[in-house]
Amino acid sequence: MFDLKEELKNLPENPGVYIMHDRDGTVIYVGKAKILKNRVRQYFQNNANHTPKVRAMVAKIAYFEYIVTDSEMEALVLECNLIKKYMPHYNILLKDDKQYPYIKVTMNEEYPRIFMTRNLKNDGAKYFGPYMGTSTIKNTLEIIQNIFLPPTCNRKFPQDINKGRPCLNYHIKKCFAPCMGTVSKEEYRAVFYDICAFIEGNHSELLKELEQQMKEASAQMEFERAARLRDRIQSIRAISEKQKIVDSDHQTDMDIIAIHCLETKAFVEVFFIRGGKVVGRENFRLDNTADLTEPELLTDFVKQFYMNAVYIPKDILLEYALNDALVEAWLTQKCGRKIHLRVPARGEKKRMVEMVHKNAEIAANNYKIELLKNEEQNKSLEQLEKLLGIPVRRIEAYDISNIAGSENVGSMVVFQNGKPLRQAYRKFKIKSFEGADDYAAMREVLYRRFRHALEEEDAVARGELDPEQAKFLPHPDCIFIDGGKGHVAAAEEMLEQMELDIPVFGMVKDDKHRTRGLLNAAGEIGISMHSGVFHLITRIQDEVHRTAISYHRKLHRKEGIKSELEQIRGIGQKRRGALLAELKSVERIREATIDELKNVKGMDQKAAEAVYQYFHHQ
Questions:
Q1: What stretch or stretches form a coiled coil here (predicted)?
Q2: Three-state DSSP class for residue 428
């Protein structure tokens, strides 16, 4: 049995880490101490001087353990690792303790690849990050794809070189196609060295290198390669010009960190400056921050943020001085070079910190607005549940779309807790009949949707499918259909045949095709046009209708393009892809001259004449 008084007496006078547990054995707090005996004892003495948060924590401590280290620096590193491992409730935590994403460039491979990953390994590859979310990474990868054209297919190099035709990305100028065997290994790797330099923000050095390569290619009369390098140079310059220059006199690398507190949460903004330019920014939310000062919060944030960072600039500008002098020494030791934590008091750097703080304040205000929206949505859901007498936390809505009875499609959208859950949307191309029959189309859509769900339930029961991997589970609380009594009856008939008990409601419209309310087999349910429930139903109806129309148009456009070009004799898949990549649309192909058509890669005089004759002499 744990004897608190005895354990406090036996605490060593060494640096180390202490770990607090509750009665269930859960770790609720991790801290470091220069002298364990003094620090841990403080929690159980002078209770009146503690903050409410500390008093609440101490009341839950059932026992503690500690780990002695050789130095306070080792204790700091161990504290960071244990906080990441246990995510204790009373420590300051970055919102969502997930493994933050990185950009990985496999320079350790003969033919490198680039992609996003959440697994940081010591495997010789280059990692860039971490990033708070995936949107910044996706934008960066998209820019890299447009400038450097790296392959994104699943082919393995060098074994897949000269095996098969290049994919569509080559034809639409999104890949330099090493699979064709026209690029040497050295040239391939050079592109990925340039990509790494671009991500690091070394644009000036990269531009100098590319300009030198362009001159050499021109001197050797390799004009195609010189043109590719020219385009790459222009793209990088365009990107650089869009970035705000914040320090034109000193083209240095630095991070700028500021904080804005809001009740029990804090919002931290980090700006990344590389070569004197803003190359990115991230914002973070800290939870459980009551009774803590800004310096304390920033200290905990800096420790957690830089613990796994691959690159740390030599200068980090802070809004407040940290309350732990060891952090600067720890970062210096971690990087193997001097790291400076500075709090500017005046001048340009002070104004930069103020700008970053303003962004943190905006993030806090946006969070408040989002809370109010969520509160309003929850009220609307509660009102809807009371009105219908059933749960409505997961609503599925369906709509059918066609043109003059042809090309029937169905759409399914999902609203989870009043918000669209887009990854759960599903689209259906009607297969069982042709012609106009919305009721039959609705029955087919529901049959296919719930047949898949029942098959997945069986697979989950057999242990063959992880529930989180299921695409058609869980079942909805209720179903909304864009239609009237006939649509509701058709849906209820199909659900009854499948032995499913799910309430169905029709979303009816007025004479001007605007949302009016809901109905079921018992009749129409009156809803005030000025209520939150009415606005929620309108949003669901608009979303399912938009999804159905968008899918129908996409299929119609795709089939139209395919059938149009497939009619031309002598124009195969490769030439069709090249024509669309170069001229962008069938309409532009129709308007092109024979010479313009002939200049498309893969086309000759005969093929150009065939296309021209098709469109002009049908």
A1: 200-227, 357-384
A2: strand
CB 423 within 8 A of CB 417: no
- Taking each helix axis from N to C end, the angle separating 134-148 and 185-200, rounded to the nearest 10 degrees, works out to 140
In the predicted structure, residue 128 carries a pLDDT above the cut 60: yes
* Rounded alpha-carbon distances, angstroms, from residue 49 to 39, 46, 55, 60: 15, 6, 9, 18
Contacts of 302 (CB under 8 A, 6+ apart): 257, 316, 318, 322, 327, 341
Dihedral of the alpha carbons of 58, 268, 300, 278, in degrees to the nearest 10? 170
Whether residue 484 contacts residue 517, with contact meaning beta carbons closer than 8 Å, is answered with no
Burial class of 172 by CB neighbour count within 10 A (0 to 12, 13 to 18, 19+): middle
Under 8 Å between Cβ of 400 and 438: yes
Residue 192 has, within 13 A of its CA and on its CB side, a CA count of: 25
DSSP calls for 68-117: E-SSHHHHHHHHHHHHHHH--TTS-EESS-----EEEE-TTSSS--EEEE
Confidence of residue 3 (pLDDT cuts 50, 70, 90): confident
Cβ-contact 97, 87 below 8 angstroms:
yes
368 phi-psi bin (left φ>0, alpha ψ -120 to 50, beta other): alpha
Asked if residues 51 and 22 have their Cβ atoms less than 8 Å apart, the reply is no
126 strand-pairing partners: 105
Separation of alpha carbons 405 and 270, rounded Å: 55
Residues constituting the chain: 618
What's the mean pLDDT in 583-597? Answer: 81
Please name which of 200, 178, 173, 198 lies closest in space to residue 188, comparing C-alpha atoms: 178
Q: Is the dihedral of CA 321, 323, 325, 327 positive or negative?
A: negative
The structure tokens listed for 394 are 């997961």
Query: What is the pLDDT, as a whole number, of residue 241?
Result: 57
- Is there a contact between 506 and 484 (Cβ–Cβ < 8 Å)? yes
Q: What residue type is assigned to position 479 of the chain?
A: I
- On average, the pLDDT of the chain sits at 85
The torsion of the CA quartet 283, 289, 291, 294, rounded to 10 degrees, works out to: -20
